[in-house]
Structures are given as C-alpha cells and as structure tokens.
Amino acid sequence: MKRWVWLGLLGGAVACTKVPDRDPPVSEEVCPGTEALSLPGTARQSLNPLAGEDGAEPVLITYRPRVSASAVSNLDMLTESARRVGAQVHRRFPHLNTIAAKVSPEARRALEQDPDVLRVEPDRVVRAFGMPSPLSPSLLQGVLPNTSGSTGEYTAGLHRVQAPQVWDANNDGVLDDGAPSGTGIKVCIIDSGWDNRHPELAAAYLEGKDFLDGDDEPLDQGRVSGVLKWGGGHGTHTAATIAAQLGAGAHVRPGEEPNGVAGVAPTVSLLVARVLDVNGDGNTSNVIAAMDWCIERGAHIASLSLGSIAPSQTEEAAFQRAFDAGMVAIAATGNRGTEEKSYPAGYENVIAVGAIDANNAWAPFSQYGKDFVSLVAPGVGILSATIVGGAPYGDVDVGGTRFASEPLEYTGVGKYAGRMVYCGLGERVSSCGEGATCDGFVALVDRGGGILFKEKALNAIRAGAKAIVVGNNTSEDGAGNFTLTDPEDFWVPTTSVTLVNANTLKGLVGQDVTVDVSGLDYLRQSGTSMATPHVAGVAALVLGACPRLTHVQVREVLERTALDLGEAGKDIKFGHGLVQAKAAVDEARRICPPPAP
Description:
Layout: E1 3-7, E2 26-30, E3 57-63, H1 71-84, E4 88-93, E5 98-103, H2 105-112, E6 117-122, E7 125-128, H3 137-140, H4 156-160, H5 163-167, E8 186-191, E9 205-210, E10 221-224, E11 227-230, H6 234-243, E12 269-274, E13 281-283, H7 284-296, E14 301-304, E15 306-307, H8 313-324, E16 328-332, E17 350-356, E18 375-378, E19 382-385, E20 391-398, E21 401-407, E22 414-422, E23 441-446, H9 453-463, E24 465-471, E25 494-497, H10 499-506, E26 512-520, E27 522-525, H11 528-545, H12 551-560, H13 581-591
Parallel strand pairs: 8-12, 8-14, 9-12, 14-16, 16-17, 17-18, 22-23, 23-24, 24-25
Antiparallel strand pairs: 1-2, 3-5, 3-6, 4-5, 7-13, 7-15, 10-11, 19-27, 20-21, 20-26, 21-25, 22-26
C-alpha cells in the first residue's frame, strides 16, 4: 500500500544542462518508509579540522630569527606572543621559525604590525590532483614482499615507463635476482592516507602518520554526518602505483588479471603521511609537517599528488629544507589544463610531473608552462588499487544475456532480481506507472530531461524500485560515467547502459532482470596525480641501482634519459619527456658500476 505525500522541486543543477520549468508541486503516492527521504544540497562538506570558524582564518606566521636564542626557545617566546594577541596555535615548525594558527582579523592585523613577524600568509587549502572514484598497521610490519606473480599484473603504464624491463627482463613474472626493484628505498607518500586492508600494500608499508587526526594510523577515513566512512582511495591508488607487489591480487573485475597489479618499484618501503581528508582537501601546514616527518624518518623520495594554484613562502622553505637534507621531492603539475604553475610542483627544487594519455599525447587537463614541467608519465585511465570494495562493478542480466554497464558514483552495492518496469525520464514517482509495486522491481530510466540522476533515482525508490538501470540517450560516451551527486544510505544498486542496450532492454520490459553491483578493489583513474607516482617509482629504481647518487644526480638522470616527446628538446607541455626506467637505471649503473665479483 502506498501513501500520499506532497512533492516539490528538488535542489541542484545539471552542469551544462538547462533545467526546464517544472509544474507546481503535486501530491504523489509513495511506498511506506520512503516518505521522509530527501536529497541534500550539493555543497561540499570539508572535513578539515583547520577550516575557519566564526571569522577565524588559518594562517602561517613566520618570525624573524633571533641569533641569541635556539630555534625551539625562540619559537616558545614567539608562540606566547602570538597567543597574547588571540592566535589559536595548533602547530609549530622550529626549523622554519613558523607557527600555524587560527586568527581573527584583529589578531592578524596585530601580528602584521609586530616587528618580529616576517610574514603572515594563508594556511592555504591544498587538494588532490586526481580526477573522479581491519588489521592494525603494526600487524603488517615484517611482511615480506612476493618475488613472483604474473606478467598480467604489468599495466600499460608500467610498460610505458619500462619498469618490468628493469626487474623482470625475461618477462616470466618473477623478479630477477639482483635487479633493482625498490628494496631499501623509502618513499614518503603525502596524500589521503591508505587502506590497510589491501593486500597489494601490506608488504610495502613501513610506518605512517595521520596529520589530521594526530595519530599513527594514516587511514583514508573520516566522519561524514557523524558516521565513519572510507575516503575515495586517492592515497591508496598513488601508493599502489609505486609499490603494489606481485601476486597479491584482491577482488578484480571479471576477466581481468586475478593477481591485480604490480607497482613500478614493487619492493620499495612506504612511509604514509595523511594530509588530505576524505574529500581530498588539506592545508599547507599539514604538508609542511608531513615533509618534516618524512625527513625525520629518512625518506629518500617524497611523492605528492596534490597542490594549490598559489605559492607559499613557508611551504617553499620546507621543500628547500627537504632538498638540503638530500630528498628527491616529486609533485603533480595539476589538472586545470592551463599554462600556469601549481605548488609544490612549481618550486625550483621539486620535480614537476605532467600527464600523457595512452598514445603519448599531452593530456588536455595537465597543467604546463615554461620552466615548469620536468617530466611526464601515464596519467589517463591508470589502473591501480583503491579502497577495498570501493570501485563498483555493474552487471545487468536478462535471461542469461548480460549487458555491460557502469555503476553510478555513490551507488548502493548489492544484487537484486525482479521484474523490469519502464519509468521514462523518471521525473515523478508516478513515471513508473502501474507496473511499480512496493514489493520491489527494477526501474529502467532514461537519461535526459534536465533532471538530476539523484532525482530520478529517488523517484524510482519512492515508487518501490530495489535496483535502477539508467539508459544513456547518446552513443558518444558509451554506458556513461554518471553520479548520484551525494552519498546516501538509501541508494539502491544503480548502473547505466549504452543507448543501444537501453533500446534492447525496453523491448524486454516485464521480464525478470538481475542487477548486480559489487565492490571491486581496483579502479582506473586519471590525473597528474596518477602520473606522479610513476616518476617516484622510477626514481626509487634509479636509487636502488646506485644508492650513492645524490638527489641532484637522480633528477639529472631521470631528465637526461627521458623519451623526448613533442618539440625537440625540453618543451612547455612534456618537459624533458616520458620517464624511462630502463634507460635511467642503465645510466645510473654507468655512473655507479656494480662491484666486481
């Protein structure tokens, strides 16, 4: 039995689509238990604890050094001075003579007038440069990496940067004895944390620090409306691109390599620093603190698939300190597709990495510029590990005939079999007609009409749908890549099919159909975020081949041996070219020949 409720306009907008005028609100009959379901606005909720409140602004306050005092005691005095004018100090950087604090406008003005203050600058937001999708860490320590697996784990990205040619020259799926594969090299991943349940990273994980929660477990988790949820897997994806080990597969898409993927440097050791929340947002002060931690832990390489369009003098000083300590810092150029710098990639002592596609063409989203891009690497459709169960896979089956589909972002996960009902554009609960029943059915909904997918889905759910299939209305983008906009507990398994398959399914309305949306442990993602760890992994192989190389020499080797793309020589989009592991390792060995037998 359905109940009557008043339904009005739902918030939100469709990008590049005009939402037509709607009829006035009407009362519609909905299934019991769905009356109170509602859609949120599209505002992004930041989980960063440093976000300003009540007019308070997060800033970095850098003081002039005092020759007569130690760095720590000097900062003690200056911290107290800042507190006296109302600054809420939450982090200190003695090596940089800097504190991070939240200040009112009045406190900021007072600090800027203090002769001891060198500068006050925003503790700016930094974001992940990816494009959208429990064992205790201590129990994982001591796990040895596998030395054998399958050549099916060697992704297209690995082949294009020549990684397997370095550690599996005979292509038999087994690491070659004595070949550099990352052993003994520490890479610090400064990102959104990781999923400690994923078998691809168990052997690589060495130690971690969460700069958001302040503990030693850098899990990619956060609270959304009071509920602890896993993040988008950005840090797991970048870490596995570097360090996924052979023969350690998890839940993969049917027909794909069961052992998962291999990393560029599959025996490297990872230091994981979490500085981004589950939305992919963080603050400059967290990045600085993470760099300090990486230095303290003896990291050889830092990989940062994040940044901001604005520079920070304090952050630049932190990267200079890392450079002085001998660390190779590698960062993404950014995804705005413009001729402008992002930071930290834009600092002089950081290797800036842009992205290319499967044809070695410049990826249109990849930022570029003169004296900016150093190297490029694969960054489009990169397959790597993600949050366990975090990559939905959709399957639509009618009488044994399967239809390829793409789950919508934020879809519910599960399997449902029932009669298929055609719901048109899904603009109302009544769109599903008399075939809809509160006992459950599979809703077939058309794309289009200027109606958000989340509206279509909620209308179908209110009509009793337990699963939803969206039919694309254009052939250009296949099954589509759509979203329900926001995570909600009431979403049901929702997946989309091509225009051709949608038309076929319309002829099968009334028959039983099975919709299965399950969570996979691997995901294809694009962005300069995905290109950066390829270069970090190659740098680890170079250092493994010749540990006595300085950080300056490592950069020179990577740039000198890159595959020249675009215009001859270094250019504004490709830099020195596509990073090449085999050529770089050969050059490193020339500089640092192996010891005589």
